[in-house]
Amino acid sequence: MEELEQGLLMQPWAWLQLAENSLLAKAYITKQGYALLISDLQQVWHEQVDANVVSQRAKELNKRLTAPPAAFLGHLDGLLRPLLMDTPGPGKATFSCDHVAEALILRVRSELSGLPFYWNFHCVLATPSLVSQHLIRPLMGMSLALQCQARELATLLRMKDLEIQDYQESGAVLSRDRLKTEPFEENSFLEQFMVEKLPEACSIGDGRPFVMNLQSLYVAVTRQEIQVRQEHQSAGE
C-alpha cells in the first residue's frame, strides 16, 4: 500500500460545516502529495495527487507565487489540519465547496508570503473499493469490536452479581438502600435496550456523533487491518 493511501486510511474522520454543507472529511499530506476523502453521507469523493500535479495547479491558480511543491503542500497541511481538528489556524483562511456534476470542489482562500493563495481540491466520486476500505470494512470491524466489548462487560456484570451474592450470604448488608440493584439479566437488558435506547443510540444525524464519539476506535481498527495486511504480505514473500 502506498504511503498516501495508508496514511489516509489511518486518519480519523472530521466533521465540517461549510455554509449549508455538513461533511465528513479526512486528509493526509506529505511532501510528495496529498490524499483527501469527503462524504456528505450520500456520496463519497476522493482526490489523490502527487507533487507534479500540485506544482502545475499552483501555477494555474497563483500566478504571482513561485515556490517548490513541498512549500505549497506544507501550506495546505497548515490550513487543513486546524480545519479538520476544529482548532484556530494561523492567519485567515476561508473554505467553501461546490458540486460540479458528480464532482465536489473544495475551495481554499488564504495568504502565503503576504500574497493571496488559492487552492481547489478537485474530488471525484470514490471507487467502491475505496468506500469499502475507509467505511464499510472499518465500520464492520468496529461493530464486531463493540459486540465483543459488550459481551465482556456482560460477563463482568455477572461476576459482580456473584460477588455481591457471596457478600449477602456472608451477612453483609447495604448501608444505603438506593444502591441496591437487581441481578443482571442479559436478555432482558437487550430487549429493553432495543425498545427504549436504540432509536436515540443509532441516530446518525449529520454524522457528527460518529466523529465525536468513535474516532479512537475507528483509528484502532484501521491500524489493525493495516497490520494484518502487512503480515499477510510478509508471509507471502
UniProtKB/TrEMBL annotation:
One of its GO terms (cellular component) is DNA ligase IV complex. This is Non-homologous end-joining factor 1. It comes from the Eukaryota. The gene is Ihh_1. Residues 128-175 form the XLF-like coiled-coil region domain. One of its GO terms (molecular function) is DNA end binding. It comes from Crocuta crocuta (Spotted hyena). Residues 12-124 form the XLF-like N-terminal domain. GO terms for biological process: double-strand break repair via nonhomologous end joining. The keyword Membrane does not apply. Belongs to the XRCC4-XLF family. XLF subfamily. It is found in: Nucleus. Homodimer; mainly exists as a homodimer when not associated with XRCC4. Interacts with XRCC4; the interaction is direct and is mediated via a head-to-head interaction between N-terminal head regions. Component of the core long-range non-homologous end joining (NHEJ) complex (also named DNA-PK complex) composed of PRKDC, LIG4, XRCC4, XRCC6/Ku70, XRCC5/Ku86 and NHEJ1/XLF. Additional component of the NHEJ complex includes PAXX. Keywords: DNA damage, DNA repair, DNA-binding, Nucleus. Pfam families: XLF (PF09302), XLF_CC (PF21928).
